[in-house]
Write a structure and sequence with these properties.
elongated, 222 residues, Membrane-bound Lytic Murein Transglycosylase D, Chain A, 2 domains, 10 helices, 4% strand
């Protein structure tokens, strides 16, 4: 009797020390063996704890979704979770192959025609990539052309004298030096600082106010 009691206690202890997640996984295995896949999924998902040992549970869930539930989207999710937890595991390459197959299945379903061959899907994908590249190149060309046109227009505007210059028939240019102001430039050309407004008016393409003056700018001096 004492021997039987001790064995019973030991058996009870063994059951007690089994982790909850392990027991849930075993129960899920049993439900899957009975073809009760909905209940098996619930138990497997309850057994997930985010630890590395969950990789096996993700693998089993992926197989059920893939083979029994015909649900490649959920299968892909669990295959990806498996690879996150076991990227170099012994099943990693097998899982990657399963994922390629599921991705192809999803892509085929999106086309609305389950008879589209893989080669055609690959061709369409390559065409899309080529079109994206062509659009990117065309956009870059247009951007460069717009920049060139703006630069040409700016140069042409610089070369074109304003109305005051046309009327006077005289035009000079001056490259702004460090320390120059419109008043000092006016003194240099007109011997009076009071005519700086005339210089400002003649260079509206560069200056909207006296503070816009910078070394290196080429000004038209009426």
């Amino acid at each position: 009797m004492p021997l039987l009691l001790s064995l019973g206690v030991l058996g009870g202890c063994n059951r007690m020390i089994i982790p909850r997640e392990t027991q849930l996984s075993k129960d899920a295995d049993a439900k899957a063996g009975e073809a009760n896949y909905a209940e098996a999924i619930n138990l497997y998902e309850a057994a997930l704890d985010g630890s590395p040992r969950s990789a096996d549970v993700h693998y089993k869930l992926a197989l059920i979704y893939d083979d029994k539930m015909n649900d490649p989207l959920n299968a892909l999710h669990h295959f990806k979770r498996f690879l996150t937890l076991e990227p170099a595991g012994k099943r990693a390459e097998e899982v990657k192959d399963f994922m390629k197959r599921d991705e192809l299945t999803l892509l085929t379903n999106l086309t609305g025609d389950s008879m589209v061959p893989r080669s055609e899907l690959v061709r369409l994908n390559n065409e899309n990539l080529s079109l994206r590249q062509q659009i990117g190149e065309r956009w870059a060309e247009q951007k460069a052309a717009t920049a060139t046109d703006k630069a040409a227009a700016r140069v042409a505007k610089k070369k074109q004298p304003n109305e005051k210059t046309k009327r006077s028939g005289k035009e000079r240019s001056y490259t702004v030096q460090r320390g120059d102001t419109l008043a000092s430039i006016s003194r240099k050309f007109y011997r009076s600082s009071a005519r700086w407004q005339r210089i400002l008016d003649a260079n509206t393409d560069l200056l909207s106010k006296p503070g816009d003056l910078k070394p290196g700018q080429t000004l038209v001096i009426p």
